[in-house]
Design brief:
single chain, 941 residues, mainly alpha, Rossmann fold, Serine Threonine Protein Phosphatase 5, Tetratricopeptide repeat, five-stranded parallel sheet, 47 helices, 5 strands, 64% helix, elongated, disordered N terminus, disordered C terminus, adenylate cyclase activity
Length: 941
């Protein structure tokens, strides 16, 4: 190394060079520390340093560079290297140091003394007597002292943790005897290595050595080391190796363009680690178990996979954590990904595959998630694992739910490697077609054709294709399922209708639910059922007849009868189909007995066909819909909220029809409860664009319309409600109870002053409700019809609504009818009757939890009581508001001016004026002044 004479050096010799040692990257700070120690030693006092680091962190290179710096500064340099294979050789490290000191070149012109052989100072065998020990230790000390008297001495020992015991004793012996000599001692040690000999590290290095901790190289130095640009790739290289120079060297020898760093490793590194770990009990086995298990490496599984008892496993883990080979965590893992890949690369392929299969079995038996088990099964290639097929299929299902179809494809492809029956192979191929459809839509049809080719049993094929129809329910997925079912049906049709009818049934429902327009003609489809005598076929026929009756809105009694027949057998798949479920729950919401039966059918232990839907969700949703219809809003909201959380966790709230229906129901219930913030937050999370092709989108549109109408956006709410109606009509849906959009559109139209539109909507709603005939639906339509009328007919309709709803379970609908009837009675001057009606309305709406309705009923009740108290003071029985409006009208103000002055709607002003005309016995505004003047004169008298 180049040196230069510094005339101002306080040591009177060469200065310590400041430039970096050749080939040593990223260690400038550490070398500066060595430089400072050299200066301190040359001042005549002994100093020491311990360089610690992980395997391969460059301790040896650091020691070599330190020796070069010391030699350039005029030190006599002696460096010894301890070796694991030479630990048993007595004095091996000490003799290396002695040879370095006694063979140092003499000063120019001075006589060269006889050089004693190292064995003359340190014998080959440990001294046996105390005298021999003392003589050997003194000889080593005198050698070091003699060299130090000639000039500063650098003693470096690499891997001190591997040095033989006698050499360690020699170093400990001289350490306090050279304190006043220019001696620099530098030791390197593996971090965390537990010394088990008689000499401690501090006894060799002194009580206060400088500790130099070698850490991984930074990204800039990694890039320089690998000769790559300092960008993202260099950062990834640093992440997988920790910046460890030894690992980086192995990586550099394998770098190729486009390589996947996540799988990069070196079998040579794995072999080195395996060999080094052999000195620790069971460490190689535990090391391999950690590499195999990866993130699943819990302590108990590690011990089982390594085949050792827990105490032995714990000791091995403790050792490897201390040397930073494993992370210090509850689930130990290899510190760097490159190391894990290297350990795996060192394992023979068969050994690795078998061990991965054992790990998968241990995880499965421990109840781990299928996808975690599946990850290990993917690595257990070329090994037959029959039990793995179902696990891989379930893992594939979960992966699609989590939005990782590529992983799903890998799981299913691995499942196809097993020995499979034609039935199971066909099912897996269809599941694979769905997963591939999300990755590469063009490949899915070919996979479906491959599945069709494996049909060897018609019933099984129909069952598998039906399962696909039930599993894939939204958007493009539904189209894939319908097209696949068509191919299966064409193949099965040659066997007669008995072989294909279940598939045709589900295909018909899927078609009906996925179309924006009218569903397939039910009459054409129904003709195929006539010859079938199978009970399950007849049960399905009853279900479809019920559905057709609902869609036509013909007769509630007939629909209920058909649904009852459909529920009498064992065929839950029919009621799990999204389109069928959506309409069935709406129609059966007023039938407690059939609702209970439906929930029993749906509440099955097996997973739902639709992989978006959590277990038990359909029964919970059906129960929530029934509670909502009955007016138990709080309990209904609890059911809906729990489901929405589960759908949110799966990320399918905007995709799955059942999830969309559940969210829409929760929005609607939240509006009735007065929880507008909750409804808005939920609505903002739903992607309307993702739900456009769904039948349940209509209900979501209806729920949004109700929310907007209730939160000061009547125009937008009206448009949503009308949009829902147009879509339902285009779909051929005449059932008024699915989403009662007309009733709420009529009320919103009234608020907007569109009385003609409101009357027309109310009339249409009443006609549809009378045709359907269910009390809740009919009572609601009568309420709306009475609301848009201001004459005696309005009161008659509202009274009839109360009578009809009083015989039903629809408590909320009854509370609404009572409220509207009480308000109308109050406007007609029937304050006493209004008080009684509104008292029942307030009590009933409060019981339902409908806070906005309860508040309105309470306010109307308070006004009615006030009117009742003040009516005696007025000859004509005008309420205070009626008198005020009539007085302003008599003074020439228009209805609009009165409405603005009193903060009322024009419709309310019109109602008050009508009530005043009737009570005063006049026909119009021109007679108001005289009628009111007459009343005032009578009062004055």
């Amino acid at each position: 190394m180049h040196t230069e004479v510094n005339p101002e050096s306080p040591f009177g010799g060469p200065s310590v060079p400041k430039r970096r040692a050749a080939g040593l990257l990223g260690r400038d700070g550490e070398l500066d520390t060595i430089t400072g120690l050299c200066r301190a030693a040359r001042q005549g006092r002994a100093v020491s340093a311990v360089v610690v680091g992980e395997f391969g962190m460059g301790k040896s290179s650091m020691l070599t560079a330190a020796g070069e710096l010391a030699e350039a500064a005029g030190f006599t340099v002696a460096i010894a290297t301890a070796s694991r294979l030479e630990t048993h050789l007595t004095g091996g490290v000490g003799r290396q140091l002695v040879e370095g000191l006694t063979h140092a070149p003499a000063e120019p012109g001075s006589p060269r003394p006889r050089t004693p052989h190292a064995t003359e100072i340190l014998p080959d065998h440990p001294p046996r007597t105390e005298r021999e020990q003392t003589e050997a230790l003194d000889a080593f000390f005198h050698t070091v002292r003699h060299a130090a008297e000639q000039g500063p001495v650098f003693l470096g020992i690499d891997n001190i943790h591997l040095a033989d015991p006698w050499s360690m004793r020699c170093l400990a012996y001289i350490r306090h005897r050279v304190e006043q000599l220019p001696v620099l001692v530098v030791l390197t040690s593996l971090i965390g290595h537990l010394q088990t000999g008689e000499v401690a590290l501090l006894e060799m290095s002194g009580c206060t050595p400088a500790t130099i901790r070698l850490r991984g190289l930074g990204t800039r130095h990694v890039a320089e080391f690998l000769r790559v640009s300092a960008g993202r790739f260099a950062e990834e290289c640093r992440e997988v190796t920790g910046g460890n120079p030894f690992l980086l060297g192995a990586l550099r020898r394998r770098l190729v363009p486009g390589m996947d760093l996540a799988t990069a490793g070196s079998a040579m590194i794995g072999e080195v680690l395996r060999v080094r770990m052999h000195e620790y009990t069971a460490a190689p086995k535990v090391l391999e178990a950690v590499a195999i298990l990866g993130e699943d490496a819990s302590f108990d599984l590690l011990a089982q996979l390594a085949g050792v008892d827990e105490s032995t496993a714990l000791e091995a883990i403790d050792t490897m954590v201390r040397v930073h080979l494993l992370t210090n965590s509850h689930r130990p893992s290899l510190t760097y990904r490159f190391v894990r890949n290297s350990v795996l690369a060192d394992m023979p392929l068969t050994t690795r595959a078998v061990t991965q299969a054992r790990a998968a079995r241990l995880l499965h038996d421990a109840g781990a998630a299928p996808e975690r088990v599946g990850v290990h099964l993917l690595e257990a290639t070329a090994i037959r694992i029959p039990w793995a097929v179902d696990v891989l299929r379930l893992a594939a299902r979960h992966s699609v739910i989590e939005g990782d179809p590529e992983l799903s494809v890998r799981f299913l492809s691995r499942a196809l490697e097993e020995r499979l029956s034609e039935r199971k192979r066909m099912a897996i191929l269809l599941q694979l077609a769905h997963a591939e459809f999300h990755c590469d839509p063009d490949s899915a049809p070919a996979r479906v054709r491959e599945a069709v080719d494996h049909i060897d049993d018609r019933d099984t094929a129909a069952f598998v294709a039906t399962a696909m129809i039930l599993s894939l329910c939204c958007g493009p997925d539904a189209r894939l399922a319908i097209n696949s079912a068509g191919q299966f049906a064409a193949r099965l049709d040659a066997g007669g209708r008995d072989a294909v009818w279940p598939l045709l049934c589900m295909t018909y429902l899927a078609e009906a639910g996925s179309r924006l327009g009218p569903p397939p003609d039910f009459r054409d489809f129904e003709q195929q059922w006539a010859p079938l005598n199978d009970p399950a076929a007849q049960q399905s026929r009853s279900g479809l007849l019920a559905l057709d009756t609902v869609r036509e809105g013909k007769s509630s009694a007939n629909a209920v009868r058909h649904f009852g027949e459909a529920l009498s057998g064992e065929q839950p798949e029919l009621f799990e189909q999204p389109y069928f479920f959506t309409l069935a729950t709406a129609a059966l919401a007023d039938e407690p007995a059939l609702t209970d039966k439906l929930c029993q059918v749906l509440d099955t232990e097996r997973l739902p066909w639709d992989f978006h839907v959590p277990k038990g969700a359909l029964a919970t949703l059906a129960r929530g819909i029934a509670l909502q219809a009955g007016g138990d809003l709080v309990r209904a909201s609890v059911h809906f909220e729990s489901l929405v959380r589960q759908f949110d966790e799966r990320g399918v709230t905007s995709r799955c029809p059942i999830a969309v229906l559940c969210a829409a129901r929760l929005i609607e219930v939240s509006v009735d409860l007065g929880r507008h913030d909750i409804a808005k937050t939920l609505l903002d999370r739903i992607d309307f664009g993702a739900t456009q092709a769904l039948f349940t989108h209509n209900y979501l549109l209806y729920a949004r319309g109700r929310l907007r109408a209730a939160t000061g956006e009547p125009e937008l709410g009206y448009e949503d409600l009308r949009g829902c109606g147009r879509r339902l009509e285009h779909h051929g849906m005449r059932f008024p109870g699915f989403a009662p959009w007309r009733a709420h559109a009529a009320r919103t139209a009234l608020a907007l002053g569109r009385t003609d539109a409101a009357a027309r909507l109310a009339e249409e709603d009443l006609e549809a409700a009378e045709r359907w005939g269910a009390p809740r639906i009919l009572g609601g339509a009568l309420t709306t019809a009475g609301l848009v009328r201001e004459d005696e007919e309005g009161e008659r309709l509202l009274t009839k609504a109360v009578d009809v709803l009083g015989e039903s379970t629809a408590k909320l609908a009854l509370a609404e009818a009572l409220t509207e009837l009480g308000v109308l009675q109050a406007r007609h001057g029937q304050a006493e009757k209004a008080v009684g009606t509104l008292r029942m309305a307030a009590r009933s709406s409060k019981h339902c939890g409908a806070r906005p309705l309860a508040r309105r009923a309470a306010e109307a009740l308070r006004d009615a009581r006030t009117s009742l108290a003040t009516a005696k003071d007025n000859e004509h029985g005008l309420t205070k508001q009626e008198y005020r409006v009539a007085l302003m009208a008599s003074q020439g103000l228009t209805n609009r001016e009165i409405a603005e002055a009193l903060h009322l709607t024009r419709r309310t002003v019109e109602l008050h004026l009508s009530g005043a005309y009737r009570k005063l016995g006049i026909t119009g505004r021109t007679e108001l002044s005289s009628a009111l003047g007459r009343s005032q004169r009578v009062d004055a008298d």
